[in-house]
Design brief:
This protein is α/β, with parallel strands linked by helices. It folds into two domains: 224 residues, P-loop containing nucleotide triphosphate hydrolases (Rossmann fold), CATH 3.40.50; 71 residues, Alpha-Beta Plaits, CATH 3.30.70. Helices cover 38% and strands 28% of the residues. It contains eleven helices and 14 strands. The chain has a six-stranded mixed β-sheet, with helices on both faces. Strand 12 and strand 13 form a beta hairpin. Helix 3 crosses helix 4 and helix 8 crosses helix 11. The mean pLDDT is 87.
Amino acid sequence: MLGIHAEELQKTYGPITAVDGLSFEVNDGEVFGLLGPNGAGKTTTIRILACLTSPTRGAAKVCGFDIAQDPAKVRERVGILTENPCLYERLTAYENMDFFAKAYGVSDQAERKRRIRQLLDFFELWDRRAEKVAYLSKGMKQKLAMSRALVHEPHVLLLDEPTACLDPKSAKEVRDTITKLSLREKRAILLCTHRLEDAERLCNNAMIVNEGRSIAYGDPESLRKKIAGQQILEVVMRERNPTVTEAVGHIVAEGALKGDGARLLVAVDDVDSTAPELVRTIVHAGGLILSVKILKPSLEEVYLDFINGVEE
């Protein structure tokens, strides 16, 4: 099932265009990343899909319902986590969950109790249910905010910077939770972030946005290929001698061979055909190979290259 279908979304505020023609899809069980710097239009896109603001142009469907024609049905099926958890700190974790469950229309008390217990167990917060939110850690507050977003059992999750301001341990806990929700619960998840570590670990597909416009779209591997061009083979040897360098130079294109010490970096168009020949050539030239691997640019390198390219 298709969780989100957005087509040419645009949002303007007077002379400012916050979102400029974004189109993308998010399937069930998929984490889709909307990546970009602050002010790129990520939060505005979430607000449009959650029916908190209307697009100036374009259209979108969430779980098959049009955001303009059926906003109430969309809201029933969407859980939203803003960058600020927006919890009542004087209430306990359980009281927060109960309050928001009622606000989301879960009117049956027994059903509310069942959902709250299930979610607090899932997020490992049941033992802290009687504590006031003010005394919870940032990571716990973020997990409680995600519990709140799920209390009405939405099919689609809209997450805005879910690991912002968290320590590494808490950030990992939130990332693990997102993975559980996508794989085990088959939720369609839109993840807005400028933290490339999150996108690298979580996203099946991603769009890089800048100043409201899409500048790249695809799975992390295809985004790497767009910027990396040729793949780089790294060959590490016990030691490197001139005979090896000369032999390798005969089978690769001019300028494709780099490296330092006992490390060779070879730019190739086709790893499958080149790697065996490269290894054979090095061995015949007397080189003792310790490792061979393909070097891939990180998603952060891809992101920065795209952003810098647009700004130039």
